[in-house]
Write a structure and sequence with these properties.
The chain has 304 residues and is mainly alpha-helical.
């Protein structure tokens, strides 16, 4: 059986995705618009950018079963919930704290993948994950406070992490039987619709925002979404959801550095040390997961 390989080395694509999603928290911090509005336009503009290239996938869309459409809608709902909670968390806590908590995503996915897909991890991979998670604690340790706002932000980030973990696991199942581009487009449209309903019900205005905000909405669509989330969805054809989510552990490092340079959020020694641990754990995990990548990708291509 021929094993499908990506046209560009996976580590390079992962690096591009990590840098792209690291800008997400910066753009969100720069915006004063409600999180639900940011999320709605981020996904809507991304969908509009994708639509002109969707025609080759029309036959695949018509071939989808009712169960597939329900799962796509559910995945879109969970993605919208993720953005609503995580973007909202950045209004109350720092970039380092919020992205550190988001790094717990592989823990939820590893557990969920084992329960749903019987996907096992080697001891070395688990060790790498543990080192990286320990590093994320260092990153956010000097920034987590005991105020009501910080606690609220931390809890919102936890909720957003659970939501995106579910979204990723559903995505792993769906991209095994449909093009990843079509999956991303339908999910983004579904999520933007969820946001529109939410904003309408909450009485949040759709258009009353200055030019700066519209520019941020566009940047959110292009940088972290196209070169981040879409890229990660595409990579699900070649590697497992656990591996993809593990690479997102690089986001706290990139986001914390960008927050220091662009927002003036200072990093202490513990946070720098945490960044080194995260990248070290990531390297251990990727090295340990080399032998797993091939059968995992094969399983994704042959799943019913």
């Amino acid at each position: 059986m021929n094993i499908k390989k990506p046209p560009v080395p996976v580590p390079l694509l992962m690096l591009v995705g990590i840098v792209a999603i690291s800008f997400s928290a910066i753009f969100i911090k720069w915006s004063s618009a409600p999180a639900s509005v940011q999320g709605m336009y981020r996904l809507l503009f991304t969908s509009l950018l994708m639509l002109p290239f969707a025609r080759p996938y029309s036959a695949a869309a018509f071939a989808l079963k009712k169960k597939d459409w329900l799962l796509l809608g559910f995945s879109g709902f969970m993605l919208a919930l993720h953005f609503l909670l995580w973007m909202g968390s950045l209004k109350f806590t720092s970039v380092a704290s919020s992205t550190m908590i988001m790094a717990l995503e592989p823990v939820f996915i590893m557990i969920g993948s084992y329960v749903l897909y019987k996907e096992k991890s080697t001891k070395s991979a688990i060790l790498g994950l543990g080192i990286a998670i320990f590093g994320t604690v260092f990153i956010g340790w000097g920034d987590i406070g005991l105020s009501a706002d910080n606690i609220k932000g931390d809890l919102l980030s936890v909720g957003g992490t659970v939501a995106v973990s579910v979204h990723m696991m559903v995505g792993q199942r769906l991209v095994s039987r449909m093009p990843s581009y079509l999956y991303s487009l339908i999910v983004f449209i579904s999520a933007s619709f969820v946001f529109a309903v939410y904003n309408l019900a909450a009485g949040i205005p759709f258009f009353d925002y200055p030019p700066k905000e519209w520019g941020i909405f566009v940047l959110l669509a292009i940088v972290p979404t196209v070169f981040g989330h879409i890229l990660f969805n595409w990579l699900l054809q070649y590697v497992s959801a656990t591996t993809v989510s593990m690479n997102i552990l690089g986001e706290p490092v990139g986001a914390s550095i960008l927050a220091f340079l662009l927002l003036g959020e200072k990093l202490n020694g513990l946070q720098w040390a945490g960044g080194i641990l995260v990248m070290g754990g990531l390297a251990v995990y990727l090295y340990a997961g080399r032998k797993k990548t091939t059968p995992a990708a094969e399983a994704l291509q042959t799943a019913s």
